[in-house]
Amino acid sequence: MKKILMIxxxxxxxxKQTADGLxxxxxxxxxxxxxxxxKDFCHVDTLQVCNIDSTNVTPAHxxxxxxxxxxxxxEYDGFVILHGTDTxxxxxxxxxxxxxGLSKPVIITGSQLPLGMIRTDGRxxxxxxxxxxxxxxxxxxxxCIFFENKLFRGNRTTKxxxxxxxxxxxxxxxxxxKVGINISYKEHLIHKSENRALKVYDxxxxxxxxxxxxxxxxxxxxxxxxxxxxxKGVILETYxxxxxxxxxxxxxxxxxxxxxxxxxxxxxQCKAGSVVMGHYEASTALLEMGVISGGDITTEAALAxxxxxLGNYQASTEIKQMLKSNLRGEISA
Length: 333
Fold this sequence. Notes:
Layout: E1 3-10, E2 15-18, E3 21-24, H1 28-33, E4 43-52, H2 59-72, E5 78-82, H3 88-98, E6 99-100, E7 106-109, H4 122-133, E8 143-147, E9 150-153, E10 158-159, E11 168-169, E12 177-179, E13 183-185, E14 199-200, E15 208-212, H5 219-226, E16 233-238, H6 248-259, E17 263-268, H7 281-289, E18 292-293, H8 299-312, H9 316-324
Parallel strand pairs: 1-4, 1-5, 5-7, 7-8, 15-16, 16-17, 17-18
Antiparallel strand pairs: 2-3, 6-14, 8-9, 9-12, 10-11, 12-13
């Protein structure tokens, strides 16, 4: 019988009603008592590393989770992380980069309704996540998100709904498995690491920002943003296939930032599709000045990737190459 470690971080799934609204209160052991069925197909141990709303998640929590997995890696066959939905895609993306050479599943799940509510989606989400992590025939050595009957590559997801149970979307990569009467796996889509041993990183550069291009963006705002002290990288959310204003003030402001050594990664605001700089005139100038294409990466994964790369590598040529390369299945090769 396989051994799974269920790691609790809080979030809606662990919430109770308080005078100020829902707040995390259930421990991992409390949660396990709601799902006694998992004992029929695997052994589950629990570990509570924090009990917070996921809006309070920081990079320190990401490195805490990776350290927990590293310390318990040899003892368990898989890991299930209970997490709030608001920053779940950010955490999944970050862990995918910080955990290199995974040979075991790390599945993040949660719920839209607390586990103690009658109509909660949390019970089925946890049971399915644990069953997938403990599967004997199909190993998924990735950081994934399981939610509402689908298993996604974590760094391909974004939260799209705050009300419905189908809260997550992967616009540029299919689900890895679907749960119905049976669990249907798509083994050809699973990302297999070329590294044979787990390597855990603990550095993330936090001097990174996201700038969203919009019709009322003004020169003063952009200049102020790019003049922040110690800024090292920018995720530039552009229109469509990577298009941005062709105004001289916009072009020169972005170029000045790049000339100062700030890395600029271009991602699309669209929920699906890819940046293709040079396809339209509106993106040609960005390409020529050295803006890096993010391809079909999500904003969440782009932020995590840039934080990871800038935190662990120094050489400019290596940083640029890594930012545009497929490291963990986060972009189409």
